[in-house]
Amino acid sequence: MAEIKVPIYVRPATSRMTRRQHVERSLVAIIAEGGLPIDNGDVIMPAPVLFGRSEETLAPIGQQFNLPYSTDLETIYKDPPENAVFFEGGPTSIHYEGLGRAIDSGLNIYTEKPVTLEIDEALDLANRAAAKGIRAGVVQDKRYLPGPLALSQVIQQGLIGEPYHLLLEFGYFVHPDDGTRPDWNSDKAEGGGIILDMVAHWDYLLKMLVGQPKRVVAHSAMHIAQRTRDGQPVPTTAEDSIYATFEVDGPGAAPILCTTVSSWCRRPRKRGLLEIKIQGTQGAAEAYLDRCYYIANKKTPQIAWDPDSASREDFHDGWERFEATHLPGNAFRHQWELYLKHLITDSENPASLLDGAQGVETALCSEKSALGGNAPIDIRNVHTIAG
Prior knowledge:
Blueprint: E1 3-11, H1 16-32, E2 36-37, E3 43-51, H2 55-65, E4 69-70, E5 85-88, H3 95-104, E6 108-111, H4 119-132, E7 136-138, H5 146-156, E8 163-171, H6 194-209, E9 213-221, E10 227-229, E11 232-234, E12 241-248, E13 256-263, E14 274-280, E15 283-288, E16 292-296, E17 320-321, H7 331-345, H8 353-371, E18 377-378
Parallel strand pairs: 1-3, 1-5, 3-4, 5-6, 6-7, 8-13
Antiparallel strand pairs: 2-3, 8-14, 9-12, 9-18, 10-11, 12-13, 14-15, 15-16, 16-17
């Protein structure tokens, strides 16, 4: 049994999501369990190096996880060792420059979505990486959550027939004063705004569930126009909500309609931050972050409209819990494992740079519709225009 070391340059390790999900719950967890076994008996061993701009905030993280760290970002691009990976977890506005330099240096890359702010930049990175034989991946964690994963299996097994409508609601309330989102999230010039952030997720999630979005009609809003941090105003130039309906090719002449609501001004009450409801010809299904239920037509109660007795109806009857098979323990870690296996063994890439570029295309088309008076916008398949 051989140990295959994979140096991973993590930028920036100081962001909350990168530190918690990518470093602590993914890479450090893999190391703690002795590495990632592969079919031939060898073990892939991540070797993260943490990067950031401030040693004051970086050092405690490096010391906590006993990992090397540096504020000298230039060392990332100098003479990288074999199998080295550059992970980009910073604001979207710095992705193109950082990922481009990594590709030119011969580094493999794994990046948070959205890949870039512009579709031409995303396609350029994909083409450059392909030309140099770079192994490149894009984070698509929502695919591996228990609820959506179970929902995809409900659909694939035909338990609700042919889907014809999907309703997706996502979000939570980000308080105007000292909220849980980074400052740049409210700054459009820095890549902020919920459209690029979340529609890039819905692109691949809708593709997994019902098909690739082909057209969009959208409306965006800035419901809370003033935010502060430590008592000081934070530039607020980006939308905090997007209401978008996507068309997906259906089995017949009619498209599958996918209605989505994404908002940092949403106040969840019952099931949580994500709710996906799908109606089909033979039943319906509902998924949340951690669970999924479905009901077949034969178990759907006969319902008659009666406003005087509606409150006495129990619409939970007939619904069954559905558990996904091969459920990952953590969505981020699972995709890291898939990517590392792709890197070393040439197994299937869970999400390529072109897949990430498709998310950018769908998000920008949604933004174009919202800014253009809610006009319908056709979404290109970027796999057919790359190169």
